[in-house]
Automatic annotation (TrEMBL):
Residues 145-171 are annotated as: Disordered. Pfam families: DUF3180 (PF11377). It comes from Leucobacter coleopterorum. Keywords: Membrane, Transmembrane, Transmembrane helix. The lineage of its organism: Bacteria, Bacillati, Actinomycetota, Actinomycetes, Micrococcales. InterPro entries: DUF3180. The keyword S-adenosyl-L-methionine does not apply. This is DUF3180 domain-containing protein. The chain crosses the membrane at residues 12-30, 42-62, 83-106, 118-137. The keyword Transmembrane applies.
Amino acid sequence: MRKIDRMNPLTSVAAAAMGIAIGLLVQFYLSGRGYAPFVPPLSLPVTLVFIAAVLLVFGIRLRRNVSKGKRAVNPFHAVRLLATARAGQIVGGLLGGFGGGLLLSLLGRSVPAPVTSWLPMLLVFGGGLTLVVCSVITERLCRVPPGDESSEETDPRTGPEPVDQAAFREP
C-alpha cells in the first residue's frame, strides 16, 4: 500500500495570499469608484464554521471506526473525506485570505471604519482559519494507523499471488 502524504502547507498559504490579493483588489476598485467598502454577509463565516465542524465530526467518526476495528470502513468514504479535507484547506485559506484582504484595506484609512464594516470581515477571516485548522485535523484523522497496512507486500510488476481456484469449487 502506497503511503499518502499530507498536503503541503504552502498550498494553503498560497491560497490565502491569493485571497488577500483579491480582497484588496475588490476594496481598491470600489473605493476608486466612490462606493462603500464591500462587507461580506454574516452567513459566510457561519457557513465556514459549520463546514469545519461537519468535517471534524466525520473525521472523528472515521478514526473511531478504524481504531475499534468492529465495523469495516468503506475506503471510498475515507478517500472522499480526505479529498474534502484537502479542499477545505484550500477554500478556507482562500476565503480567510479574502476576509483578511478586505480588512487590510480598511487599515490605511484616515477615518476608522465603523464596527459594522470591519467585524464581518474579521469573522470571515476567523471562519476561514477555523476551516483550515479543522481540515488539517481531519486529514490527519484519515491516515492509516501503523500496523494496519497489509503485511503482504506484492511486487508491482507481477501483482498478487495467484489464488487457488480449486479451494472455491463446490464438492
